[in-house]
Fold this sequence. Notes:
- The protein is an alpha+beta fold.
- It has one domain.
- Helix content is 22%, strand content 35%.
- It has helices at 37-46, 112-130; strands at 21-26, 32-34, 52-60, 63-71, 74-76, 85-93, 102-109.
- β3 and β4 form a beta hairpin.
Amino acid sequence: MSWGSPAHELRSPPEGFALRYTTYVLNDEGQPEVADHQAWSDYWSANDPRRSLGSENWQAALGTVRVKTEFVGVSAGDADPPELWKTDAFLDRNNARHNNPELLRTVRYTSREAAVEGHTRIVEELREEFGSAS
């Protein structure tokens, strides 16, 4: 079975393929530090409110726009510095036949400061692009 088989089929990755990632938690000063998988899992279970940097939702003519920026605590690959924060933006279309929001943007960041600035910029861009329902 090839790696490009349909997703619903069980398959193994190609020989020699290895997904590398590093897990992080926020320490007492709010700075990311490397953590083993158990410490990362415990941290996620505790639902630290410092993970969330912003969440905006508004009704636009086409549906509800949602923007969320948070500390994700996982860096895939060899990114240096690691991209540990992420903004996701979605559009939940009015009268959609299914409950699948449309992904508008995904942006990853290497610092908390960049994530906060990016969140603000994306909200401004999407408010301009989609407006608000009248």
